[in-house]
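Slides due. Your pick:
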Amino acid sequence: MNRFNYFMPTKMVYGQGVVKEAGAAFALGQKPLIVTGQSSARLSGALDDVLSVLSGEYAIFDQVENNPSVETVKQGGALARREGCDYVVAIGGGSPLDAAKVMAVLAVNDLDPLELYQTGWQRQALPIVAIPTTAGTGSEVTQYAVLTIEEEETKKGLRGSDLFPQVAYLDPKYTESLPLAITYDTAVDALSHLVESYLAKRATPASDFVALQGLALWGTTIPALREGVLDLETRDALLLASSLGGIAIAQTGTTLVHALGYSLTYYHGMPHGRANGVCMAAYLDYTKTVAPERVETILELLDLDSVASFGELMDTLFASQIEEVELTPETLAAYVEKAMLTNNIKNSLGDPGAEVLTQILTTSIG
């Protein structure tokens, strides 16, 4: 008999023009902290739309970098406290959205960000409005926030039910200003969420339903991705698939692909989605030995005839972007050791050990 929990409290408002249509109902309080990166919120038009519906005061923190740091979220949380903000508006890709979630915690908890990993937090985070400008992380519908932890030389996630945004406004027009390379990186990030959710030990019939719908939708975008010409309809499909990926991993978590990808991002500057993408074909090859039917279902939904074809698709999307990465036996062992410490490994089918991870990483990078 089936037995599982399902919790996804975020209200999703999806479609073109949804922020402006929200009007006064957009505000969740009296004064928001608006969290963005340095350019995407403005270039996409999302920031202008938000400001057009706000009638009162606001504070802006627009210094979130890729792979946000502990210091960045500390500064943002302090700004929210000084300004008396009572809710947070996050605009951007995964980095601003994740950073905003932690700032929402720090705004009401006088803690160092690193303490959150050891002790958690007592006071519930400020309410969050999330507006994605990329179709990748699905952070607008998850309880996760990932920071770069310099002390541990890796990326590391926080989770809490109050990190679910209260409302997510999803408008595909906000993704139109993305450069093609970033579109590919973020699209593959979304794909990795859908794939890993379906292949996770914590998968349930409910999460499978969402992941499979997302995979089918993502598959419809492959011809446009191959051509490098994406109209608004394709970007609409990618954005929805990304959110479905977020909903799926909110239930299941991710697997060894993320665990290995973190080192490629931290040490080699490889964008998160790309780091996942280069590992996925070898991951599917391994998983085919323990869950062949599930791997075949993924390939069918993507209209690919083999794992090799999946790998060729990744090569096509990243042909001009993949950097030469050379791994010495020592660095390879170090990356595998870091990955083995994560819960992602425990969530991977087949109980992979260091030998499997070494083979996947060697095949992916070699």
User: Anything to note?
Assistant: The radius of gyration is 20 Å. Residues 186 and 229 are 16 Å apart (CA to CA). The chain has two domains: 11-174, 180-365. The mean pLDDT is 96.
